[in-house]
Amino acid sequence: MLSNLRPFLLLFLFVSGTVLAQDLKFTAKTSKTALGINQRLKIEFNVNKNGADNFKAPNFTNFTIVAGPSSSVSQSWVNGKSSYSQSYIYIIKPKSIGAFTIPSAKIEYKGKWISSNTVKITVTEKVAIPKNPNDPNYIAQENIFLVASVSKTNPYVGESIYVEYRLYFSKKVGFGNVEFGKNPKYEGFWNQEIKINQNQEQTGEYKGKQLRYITLRKMLLIPQKSGKLYVNPMDMDMIVSVPTGRYDFFGNPQTKRINAQYTSTRRLVQVKALPLEGKPVDFTGAVGAYKMAVTTSKNTLKASESTQIEVKISGKGNLKLFEIPKLVVPADLEVYTPERKLKSRTTLSGLKGSIADNYSIVPEYKGKYIIPSVSFSFFNPKDKQYHSLTSEEIIIEVTEGKNLPSTTNDTTTTKKIVTSSGGDFRFIKTKTQFSTTKSADFYKSKRYYLLVLLPLFSIPVGILIGRKRKKTLADVSGNKIRKADKLAKKYLSEAKKQINNKEAFYIALEKALHNFLKAKLHIETSDSSQDKIADLLSSRQVQEATINKLKIVLDDCNLGRYAPATHLEMQNIYQKASSVLSSINSELK
Predict the structure, then answer these.
(1) What global pTM score does this model have?
(2) Tens digits of residue pLDDT in 88-108
């Protein structure tokens, strides 16, 4: 019996599913099909069956979602018939002008995915809002203004200016839920945001009206080229409460909340080129007001001790956008790559603070060394003139150490002593005998072939040596590391020589450790704190026990210079230092 009914059951289920699918309606409709670039539209996706789930919105490629999705459900009974409606609502705004198609949305119903219809939208140029005093959108546009104010519209290249975004509003309206669009692209400008502590409400005049305003954002701008540059508009969305003209039972005015969009105007900045007249040769683009200081930590020291020379530029302007002068050091002094220190804060008049290069210098020989003066030039927009600063020469005196190798040739001649060989006169022979000696023929000899073939072998060898030398010279970083590694070994050997001189021993040992770490970890001596060294070694998979040993050695070096130490203790610390350097060298990866 059941077998006879099975075909009818399958047919019934198929027909029922078809009817259900046909009864389901999933539609998309919009509040308008044509709008201006400054307007918004509402798009609503509606399904008429309960049980539809897993709504998937379309890709709003050419639109920005202002609000949504919000959902609403409506169900009613009329004359014994039920109706159901569920809606998914978005408020969107166009990104550009043109004709666009919003794709289908999807929703799942009884295991099947149902697609909505597509919607075509035409976006035109900005349209004017009708001047209807009862229209909430008109009221919102007439009582709230987003204004971009530029501090100076004709600056020089490199001169600091700023743009301030203010929101003016009247007492008639209120607002909230402010959302900014994407940050404008300040093409041709170096830019950085100026922090605002809090948005304090102030009173100012705009379009002849006294309005309240708050400052929303400030941006420091430094033009990088001359000519016409533009500060592009900034967009923002907010919810605005506007009066409806009606009052409640208690006489309070009723308001309506609407979504409103505001855009600042595009501002033109005409940038002037820096004058060519009077431009110094060493000018590197510094614009503002600056001072220069070149200082040294000590002028008198011993060989293998270090001194620091700092070249510092301080003031306000385009502080991060120029090169500070380089220090020229005599070839007989060991100098490391300078450490850059930048301290700045962003102000309305530009970047304010200082930028400095700190050089670590170690002499190898005793004597007096002259560090030449350095010069720095900048352009001051206030007086429209270039200014040049020059430091004084620095004299470094090394009191102890090896003498400089002599470079002069010894031209002194010495007299040879003439000795008598037994008499003042000798007998001259009147008869002589000649004998011939047979010499080997040079042509086709072994020496001949050797000299012929030697250039042929030397050419490829010379090419290989030249390539290797060129590669070595090009490896600037590797050369510095090898140089620092060599210096570390030198100091370690120096420490061994000074093992009977406590102060000199600990100074040399500490320098050996720091130069070894500089070579292996690519750090500067002035930046080698124990914590940073430990972190770097740990990141290079050096064992924790080895790192702890290194810390102990460094601590012993610091304490040993100021505490009594015996010869045996210095030998022990030297052995510990040698051992820990060897361990680090083998464990580093």
Answers:
(1) 0.53
(2) 888 888 888 889 999 999 888
